[in-house]
Amino acid sequence: MDSFGLLLGGLEAAATPENLMYAAIGVLLGTFVGVLPGIGPAMAVALLLPVTFGLEPTSAFIMFAGIYYGGMYGGSTTSILLNTPGESASVMTAIEGNQMAKKGRAAQALATAAIGSFVAGTIGTLLVVFFTPPLAEVAVKIGAPSYFAIMLLALVMTTSVLGSSRLRGFLSLFLGLTIGLVGLDLNTGQPRLSLGTTQLADRIDIVVVAVGIFALGEALWVAAHLRRQPVRVTPVGRPWMGRSDWSRSWKPWLRGTAFGFPFGAIPAGGAEIPTFLSYVTERRLARDPEEFGHGAIEGVAGPEAANNASAAGMFVPMLALGVPVTATASVMLAALTGYGITPGPQLLSDESDLVWTLLASLLIGNTLLLVLNLPLAPLWAKLLRIPRPQLYAGILFFACLGAYATNQDPFDVFLLLLFGLLGLAMRRFGLPVLPLILGVILGPLMETKLREALTISDGDLSGLFDEPLAVAVYVLIALILVAPLVLRRIRPHPDTPAAEVARARAEQDDERVER
Amino acid sequence: MTTTTHREAPEQAPDRDLAQLGLAAVAVLVGAYTVYDATTLTVGFADPVGPRIFPYVIGAGLVLLGVLLAVAALRGDRPQAEEGEDVDLTAPADWLTVARLVGVIGVTILTVDLLGWAISGALLFIGSTWTLGSRTLVRDVIVGIVLAVASWYAFYSGLGIPLSPGVLDGVL
């Protein structure tokens, strides 16, 4: 168990008073931003990136860990108290948790969400520690052709599995790839798509893209469709759980963790499918399935655990392969790159200290989340009452501040505005955001690997297929692309989790309209 | 892409969503320009792929997807607009508010070097709250100034990043 020795070393490095302070600040900031309606974990990390500019990498990543888990936790608070899931992974929590809140059991719902997140996050992080080093060891031996194929697989999976329209998914992906092209060519140093400006030749900062698409796009979209009625927030006291709540929660936590982690680690797995699977499983196993839909605590405990376990699983491909599989992972990977650290299979050997400190600080951040946030829940709930004009003006303010701070150049704010308008258009036209962000990050990496592979084979295309792993991955990609077409022939209405989630969501909306 | 004109409630929506043609046109134009831009690059030695292939593939793909989207839109394929916590899709879209916000950010871009972040940032916050329908002007002005000045100091002394002081150079 060499990994655990290294993890202990990481814990030692992360547990200095200074780093503990950064972890605590990260947790509080992350929760603060995550509780604010309309902001998910990816946007929270993107908005808060500039805060870490002046810090050294270790401290910055300790803060990210806190921001990330904090943002996830904040999202469940919104779902339970407002019945408004900020992202598809919180839909199940919103369905069951809000029913609990309406019955006066908001405190128990928040508690099982928080403790379940802690359990799942801790187990998930330990699994990351367990899985990442062996995978990285294998990954170091992967050649450029296979590496190219794996990144292609990540793109194809996120683009064609998620979302309702594959056409719009691929459009989003290609827009992202185009953005990734802008800047000096990596080999020859010629500017591409720079329109003659020096700022564009310098490559577009991923912070500007992410904040523009996530934060500004969202704020503009909300501005166009602002719900004018006042919101109703369920009042909440200090979270606590009774004896029966505990006995009903612990198994769903563990089962949810088991669902969430593997899905988090694969591209396009995300948290949507495992949270749904966990919810369905709990309903099937429950002593009283009738209670589901009317506030069953198992329906909050399981999906929340699955959500956090998948959040931890995301770190495996990110740290072992340098391949981000979620929007949040791509923003964090971009931050890595900003520190001059090259993501990829060598990360674990080159930056061993940083990685182990990061993993250790995930554990610390998770614990702090529980210690700080259970008592603070009533305070967080108050945040939900912030008037919407001030809230979205604040998001605009911090988005512009972040973009401006990257280079102290107003041109970046202009770019931010352009990406904000793109983000607005994407929301209006139903284009998913994740393929675009992954395209921006993975596009240049893929080009590097492709050129590397073809240089070795002297331009012969067979160079892309001379590794068995690459061939296997291409077969998998072909299957993913063809399978839905075949399935549609066989079954006219595939009962996918996404469809099921959409149906549950629609029912909920109907109910809201009736009220 | 900002030429979207109407957005009715789902019940009374027209058969086709032709605003999508605008997005399709943008995709085709950007794709075509990407391909053109790639033709201006020179291929170096010892690099059989060169800097052109990727832009060719991506640009061509974008053109193709744009055309496909246009065809889909004409055949009645409708997008699923994104829902959200504060989003009410049953009401018609309020593009005027969006345009005003874009204007407010535009003012920030133009003035931030001259006036400095402390002033431009405050104006940004105040302008945005007003545009979004807040009528508590005094409070918003105070909050805006506090936010902007505090963030300037936080970046300057806390993170060592000097944001533009502008006309307040020496005062802050």
Automatic annotation (TrEMBL), chain A:
It comes from the Bacteria. The chain crosses the membrane at residues 25-49, 109-132, 144-162, 169-186, 206-224, 319-342, 354-377, 389-405, 411-426, 433-450, 470-487. Residues 20-438 form the DUF112 domain. The keyword Transport does not apply. Keywords: Membrane, Transmembrane, Transmembrane helix. InterPro entries: DUF112_TM (IPR002823). The keyword Membrane applies. This is Tripartite tricarboxylate transporter permease. It comes from Nocardioides conyzicola. The lineage of its organism: Bacteria, Bacillati, Actinomycetota, Actinomycetes, Propionibacteriales.
TrEMBL record, chain B:
InterPro entries: DUF1468. Residues 24-163 form the DUF1468 domain. Keywords: Membrane, Transmembrane, Transmembrane helix. The keyword Transmembrane helix applies. Pfam families: TctB. The chain crosses the membrane at residues 20-46, 53-75, 95-125, 137-155. This is Tripartite tricarboxylate transporter TctB family protein. It comes from Nocardioides conyzicola. The lineage of its organism: Bacteria, Bacillati, Actinomycetota, Actinomycetes, Propionibacteriales.
